[in-house]
Amino acid sequence: MIMVILFFALGRKDMVDIPNLNKMTQTEAKNTLNSSGLELGKISYEYSDTVPKGKVIRTKPPIGSQIKDGQKVNLIISKGPHLVEMPNVIGESYTVAKKQLVKLGFSVAKTEEYSSSPKNQVNAQDVEPGQQINPDKATVTLLVSKGPSSASSTRSRRHTVKLRDIVGYSLKGAQDYARENHLTLKVEEEDSDDKNDGTVLRQSPESGTDVSSGSTLTVVVAKSKKADASSSSSSSTTTTTVTKSYTINYPADSSQANSQKTPDHIQVYVSDDDHSINNIYRDMNITSEQSFTVPFKLTKKNGHIKILRNGNTILDEDVNK
């Protein structure tokens, strides 16, 4: 009986528990294994959202297992989150763009608009090209053309337009008017007590003026004083958010087939509390009019915006509090 007990006791001295190596570097794990009388085995890599890149996710055999002294332990090391560079699918057909994004692991949503670009062409994407994104946690929304409406098809043949009186229009109405007439819309805000937010108070140039396609139409829209009053009473250093809307025209050429259109490269630079004018804010290729808003967060200084089309500046102005 005593001999049997001694046999098992002596035999178990050759068995070693695999230590906890989770979230160690490869070097740390190797040193810990050597200190326990074990050797480093094969290294493999996996993506992980929870374990930092270069750290141990798990071992084979698992932590806590008993193996013979001197045996090898394999490590699975993190490659970090599964990040994919967002491709630029603007200008592609929706079918091709969706197939490309789904192949990369993204979920895809679709919104539609009337535009001068071919039907089913992708006009915009809500995730900027070049960003590193985890496709397992992202849905990419594509803005897809429904083709030109009957009204915009008629107007696209004109080289000039006589401006309508749009004073009293809503901001959306002004945006629609600018889009249909191939004008670049610039929106400014002004405090008003007796007008609804977003109502157009003035326009420049004035109604009746003949302008060319691609010209800038500036509108001043009403802004309620209530929000300003409440924010200014709380603190003299309260951050003010000034939201500006911009519409960038794509000059249509009625003699050019839709398949031959060359996208315009648009780059937007913004300066406010959160952004530097040296860093690009938005980068896109357009083949139809595009509208977007920019919320400027301003505390002690004015903001600034600069927009380039194919490397040429089309807008460069300050944004005041």
Would you kindly provide a brief summary of this structure?
Residues 113-133, 186-216 are annotated as: Disordered. With 321 residues, the protein is of the alpha+beta class. The chain has six helices and 21 strands.
Summarize the structure in words:
With 321 residues, the protein is an alpha+beta fold. It has three domains: 77 residues, 2-Layer Sandwich (Trypsin Inhibitor V, Chain A); 60 residues, Trypsin Inhibitor V, Chain A (2-Layer Sandwich), CATH 3.30.10.20; 160 residues, Sandwich (Immunoglobulin-like). Helices cover 17% and strands 39% of the residues. The protein has six helices and 21 strands. It has a five-stranded mixed β-sheet with strand order 13-15-12-16-19. A hairpin with an 8-residue loop joins strand 17 and strand 18. The protein is elongated and about 95 Å long. About 8% of the residues have low confidence.
CATH class of the largest domain: Mainly Beta
Inertia-based shape = elongated
Q: How much strand content do the residues show?
A: 35-45%
Named CATH topology of the largest domain: Immunoglobulin-like
Low-pLDDT segments: 4-12, 151-158, 227-236
Biggest sheet layout: 5 strands, mixed
List the helices and strands and how they pair.
Elements: H1 2-11, E1 15-17, H2 26-35, E2 39-46, E3 56-60, E4 66-68, E5 72-78, E6 84-85, H3 94-103, E7 107-113, E8 122-125, E9 132-133, E10 139-145, H4 150-155, E11 160-162, H5 171-180, E12 184-192, E13 200-204, E14 210-212, E15 216-224, H6 225-234, E16 240-248, E17 264-271, E18 280-286, E19 290-298, E20 303-309, E21 312-319
Parallel strand pairs: 2-5, 7-10, 12-15
Antiparallel strand pairs: 1-4, 3-5, 6-9, 8-10, 11-14, 12-16, 13-15, 16-19, 17-18, 17-20, 20-21
